[in-house]
Amino acid sequence: MSPVIRCKAAVAWEPNKPLVMEEIEVAPPQAHEVRIKIVATALCQTDLQHLLGNMGKDCFPVVLGHEAAGVVESVGHAVTDLQPGDKVIPLFISQCRECRFCKSPKTNQCEKAWYGVDPLSVPESRFTCKGKKVLQFTGTSTFSEYTVMNQMAVAKIDPAAPLDKVCLLGCGICTGYGAAVNTAKVEPGSTCAVFGLGAVGLAAVMGCKAAGAKRIIAVDVNPEKFAKAEVFGATDFVNPKDHSGPISQVLSEMTDGGVDFSLECVGNVGVMRSALESCIQGWGVSVMVGWTNTEDFSARPVQLIGGRTWKGSAFGGFKGRDAVPQMVKAYLDKKIKVDEFITHNLTLDQVNDAIELMKRGKCIRTVMTVSPQ
Ligand SMILES: NC(=O)c1ccc[n+]([C@@H]2O[C@H](COP(=O)([O-])OP(=O)(O)OC[C@H]3O[C@@H](n4cnc5c(N)ncnc54)[C@H](O)[C@@H]3O)[C@@H](O)[C@H]2O)c1
Ligand SMILES: [Zn+2]
Ligand SMILES: [Zn+2]
């Protein structure tokens, strides 16, 4: 069996505190598991929500990070599809290929996914630091030079893929793009609105465009995001702060009654309601993509009775082991954009700077180098 590895990781010891670079021990992979050398990882808003979002002491210490790419270092017993040297992307939603959800084409919600078991817990961690167990966030934990994951949550990708770019396909890009294409099922010639123009929202804009939308209205309270949104195909730009009335009324006036599709990519229940109310009655579809699990959402029933549909989307509805390699190929074939999402490049020891950039709305994605490729 491969020995324990001692390596560097950014440990979140407590909520709301800076991460600390520590030496951790990473256990060897057990049956069905692989140990991955992480080459590059990015920071996603969901990592920040765990750190800053009233998660409670039980959820710490933890190694955050779930948007990454790396190379298999060693494999445990009964690993069939992967071998040392394979380039991989860790998945925060597993695809076991055996459960009733994996067997259904209707969903990507694998029964073995970390949150299927218990929303607060994660699979048994393979990390220790200073004699303490350290949790693995979403079963991934990519703010570490090495991590251990079950093979059912690992996508094997094209060896030609540059890991410092395709790491973004581990969360944000697939999430937004798939929310438009798979969940909303945006139609050619339609009018869409995307609320929130971080990586998830910009990828949703890209998905709307790929699906043939004729008009894509980009909505954000930070006008610095509009230039990027245009790169991905947005045609109109709305800052809610420029209007005194509800944003749904503004969009309704712009579109003769509302948009065909709206996507909420902020993680705010008020914005979720606005996104629904911005849809046209009769057939409008609104998709919640932004992540929050601390508040209830609300709307008037007549919104749905009047023919609107309200849906949610995790990881863009993609079954990761099948879809992520295809998205990597789409990038290599220049059919989707990835490089354009990267605004900053840092190293893992600068992770607190990456956190500050995201908190202040100054980045789309910061890619951090973890180990040499
Ligand atoms: N469903 C999933 O599977 C999934 C996966 C990844 C991320 N997420 C969630 O998606 C959301 C976006 O993630 P991100 O990494 O792109 O975040 P981000 O912080 O980079 O982007 C959020 C954007 O929303 C804008 N915004 C804030 N308040 C707004 C408002 N009232 N109206 C309009 N825009 C507003 C911000 O200015 C920012 O540009 C987060 O909630 C994240 O947790 C969900
Ligand atoms: Zn499954
Ligand atoms: Zn994410």
TrEMBL record:
The keyword NAD applies. One of its GO terms (molecular function) is zinc ion binding. SUPFAM superfamilies: GroES-like (SSF50129), NAD(P)-binding Rossmann-fold domains (SSF51735). It comes from Gasterosteus aculeatus aculeatus. Its cofactor is Zn(2+). Residues 14-368 form the Enoyl reductase (ER) domain. Transmembrane segments: none annotated. Belongs to the zinc-containing alcohol dehydrogenase family. Keywords: Metal-binding, NAD, Oxidoreductase, Zinc. PANTHER family: ALCOHOL DEHYDROGENASE (PTHR43880), ALCOHOL DEHYDROGENASE 8A-RELATED (PTHR43880:SF3). GO terms for biological process: formaldehyde catabolic process. One of its GO terms (cellular component) is cytosol. This is Enoyl reductase (ER) domain-containing protein. InterPro entries: ADH-like_C, ADH-like_N, ADH_Zn_CS, ER, GroES-like_sf, NAD(P)-bd_dom_sf.
